[in-house]
Write a sequence for this structure.
């Protein structure tokens, strides 16, 4: 007795149709029916973009310092036939290619070069791996550096350097403010020297401010004492006795 078999290829998939173990054609999305006596088989391949984390390992740089770098790769299958026929597992193969390329890239650079531009490191890895991934039907869309972990002594040294740099910047800002204040005082002194009446005007303004406050008594040599208005009161009228 023979039965019919149903296979549904979803919109984000492609089906590889085999008859008696031989690849026949690539099936687009849809519903397919075949009889069991035909010895047919349909394998579905997912075409959606996926992310893969390349876990960090202890790798020595060109200057013999151990670093741990973690990558994130975004890829998708662009050729279902190659992805199924060229390698046993295209995702595992891509993982190995990225891991080996990461190790080769780091061992050929110093720590300063790695820290100078992390995007350059990721771009170099993608540039090297993308052609190899294309040979087994995978498009490498993006590679990014997720973590770059330095050894403990190196991290402490970088923290000290950053702290010293911040203190230097603060001292530079303070020095700029002091220089601006000194220039302002010098300009003021020059202006007063060229215009002596400004000093007298400032004195009068200061005296006016002091005299305007309640309870203050202002005495200027050679002048009558200035009493605040609040403190002055009319003199009592004199009465003559009859």
């Amino acid at each position: 007795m023979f039965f019919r078999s149903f296979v549904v290829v979803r919109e984000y998939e492609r089906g590889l149709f085999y008859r008696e173990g031989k690849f026949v054609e690539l099936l687009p999305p849809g519903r397919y029916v075949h009889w069991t006596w035909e010895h047919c088989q349909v394998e579905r391949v997912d075409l959606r973009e996926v992310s893969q984390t390349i876990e960090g390992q202890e790798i020595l740089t060109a200057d013999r310092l151990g670093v741990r770098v973690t990558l994130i790769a975004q890829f998708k299958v662009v050729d279902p036939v190659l992805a199924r026929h060229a390698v046993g597992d295209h995702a595992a193969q891509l993982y190995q290619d990225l891991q080996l390329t990461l190790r080769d890239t780091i061992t050929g650079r110093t720590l300063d070069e790695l820290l100078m531009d992390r995007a350059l490191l990721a771009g170099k890895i993608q540039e090297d791996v993308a052609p190899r991934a294309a040979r087994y039907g995978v498009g490498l869309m993006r590679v990014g550096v997720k973590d770059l972990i330095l050894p403990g002594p190196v991290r402490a040294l970088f923290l000290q350097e950053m702290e010293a740099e911040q203190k230097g910047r603060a001292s530079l800002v303070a020095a700029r403010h002091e220089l601006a204040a000194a220039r302002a005082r010098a300009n003021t002194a020059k202006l007063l020297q060229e215009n002596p009446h400004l000093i007298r005007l400032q004195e009068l303004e200061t005296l006016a401010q002091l005299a305007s406050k309640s309870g203050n008594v202002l005495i200027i040599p050679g002048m009558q004492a200035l009493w605040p208005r609040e403190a002055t009161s009319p003199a009592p009228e004199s009465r003559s006795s009859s």
Observations:
- The longest strand covers residues 66-77.
- The chain has three domains: 4-46, 50-150, 152-207.
- The beta strands are 4-9, 13-19, 22-27, 30-35, 40-46, 50-54, 58-60, 66-77, 138-149.
